[in-house]
Amino acid sequence: MQRRKFSREFKLEAVRLVRERGVSVAQAARDLDVHENVLRKWVKEFAADPGHAFPGHGQMRPEQLEIDRLRREVTKLKAERDILKKGRRLLREGLDMRFAFIAKHRGIWPVAWMCGALGVSRSGFHAWLTRAPSQRAHDDEVIGARVSASHVGSYRTYGARRVWHDLLAEGISCGLHRVERLMQAQGLRARPRRRGLPKDQGERSVIAGNVLDRQFTADRPNQKWVADFTYIWTAEGWLYVAAVIDLFSRRVVGWSMSDTMTAQLVTDALIMAIWRRGKPDALLHHSDQGSQYTSEQFQRLMADNGVTCSMSRSGNVWDNAAMESFFSSLKTERIGKKVYRTRAQAKADVLGYVECFYNPTRRHSTLGYRSPIDFEREAGVA
Fold first, then answer.
1. Which residue of 90, 121, 158, 333 shows the fewest CB atoms closer than 10 Å?
2. 366 and 235 together in one domain
């Protein structure tokens, strides 16, 4: 069998693959179809005297040595730049997170380079690799799984505080900052909220005063209701969604959806609320000055049921802030990043959000991080 021969350039490239790119000797040998012991010999020979290694085709001239040194230096500097670009936030973290980063990326960059860039020792990293996980690390793994489950269960809308209350409700004892750290480590973030001002171009007839006066708390159920409607775009056109909320528990007690923005839309939402909660007694109903709420049809329904009418001042959305907050949550947590092909598809999604998540499950900061139904149950009125 004829002995294989390799050029000096081939040997140098093989050595660079191991020394500069951080590829293991075993892997490089397999990739280059070279025996592992032969490649180890080349690496050792080059390390001993780079200028005179592999003399079969003559030693490197001084300018070649300088170019080779500069090439290695540039490669290392680029690697350090990429390491810091990817892991710069780790410089503010503890050693465990830095070591975990090094372990994850050691197939990309040499361990020595990453240790130098992140300010840790190689011996410390290798000791961390062989050390058994601490009790705190084990607890972090268990709690981290529950944190992820809570976040996913909220349709990826919960931030650290609501996730924390979910964990406390499950009997898991931990601090808010720990939840924040575990969410950050897993890349879990609450969906950002985008606020916008509603537009009303309808004609107004009967205008009531602002009786509610931004008093968004109630001592009992069916004392104060707030109402409004919004719109959702679908491939078939706009879908209009009206809702009525009881300020006592922030529960959606009535809703209605239609492809037209008429008085019937808001009337149907109020009829559902009355049907669900019973005939009101000394109830205050607050809305904006939209033409649907000032219509004769809607005003007659309130008068027939003894409901007192209250309306926001013109152009002042903060007079109905509780209702704006609900629609903001609906758009942020469910419909904001979706495209619906049909109105029926959008209706089903809104219904699922209100009746399967918002009322029975979603935690509200104003309710001590309890859901509306849980709050009413604890108050003995559910």
1. 121
2. yes
